[in-house]
Design goal:
Blueprint: H1 25-35, H2 37-43, E1 45-57, E2 61-69, E3 78-85, E4 91-95, E5 98-108, E6 112-122, H3 155-163, H4 169-183, E7 185-186, H5 196-202, E8 204-205, H6 207-220, E9 225-233, E10 241-249, E11 253-257, E12 279-284, E13 297-302, E14 305-317, H7 318-323
Length: about 325
Amino acid sequence: MVLNRQLALPFSTSQDLFPMRRFPYYLNMLLLIALWPIPRLLAQERLEMRLETTFVPEGTAQLIKYTVMLPPEVPGRQEDINMSASHAPHRVFTRDGQPYAEFRFSRVKEPVSLQLHLSMEVYPYDLRRITSPVEPLNYPGTWLQPEPFLEVEAPEIQTLARQLAGADVWASVRKSYQAVRDSLTYDPQQQGALGALTALRDGRGDCTEYADLLTALLRAQGIPARTVNGWVFGVTEGNPNHHWTEVWLVEYGWVPLDPTLGMPLPERPDRLIPHPNARYVRLSSQRVDPLCGSSTNHWKAWGKVEASYRYSHRLRPLLQARQK
């Protein structure tokens, strides 16, 4: 007897709804291998972003130096990053793993506009699709210590952190996340960073305070966490600058948590989706970047200058983007 080995299906049917079953086993396997990347490509998108910065001098500015953070490559999250600009950068460089572009404009008498175009592949974040190696926990002590805006050792932070300790790491994360959501009121008029302790006392803040308070509470419980500076698309219009928290979990590496958007956390971390419509682009994983501070860019002018920003973006499914 010659057996025609076919794909085993999890159910049987009187009708042949799957023509693939009529093919020999090896043809089925070839089809599966050929089609295997398609779900990954469908889940991935091409992000095209344009940042236009306009500098308007009063009189003559002898020099304007403008530094912009660039997104680093993060396997499985943001890849194939390309940049072009209307003006040639003075230099593109990396410091401590963080890429930057620096532009310089000399003897500026009229308004000058710089258009920066970034293109990259981004994934909607879903822990169930992680196939690449977990990001390592480099310098583990760093992500537990106090630092500016993260007053981990403050008595009020310590007291609340003890109250939020759960039976395991994820239980502690969920309770801390919920506490931040419940204790803060979003203030869109917030100017400047308050820090975790002031946010807890005042009960208000913008995305920076939400992220800082969650990061501080997790660190106070011995859970590695950090406040991330970057962009979020798909849930807001206009300026995409955003802060959120990342917590390090042994099974998954650095995992984003966004208490500002406030999606409930699932009982299991592998079901975590920070927001179904949000696309996150990580820029800096340092709370205070050595060059750009708490922002995504920094400029300095020798002369009186005002700056304004305009953002635009579009997201396209990766297969569609590659066909064009």
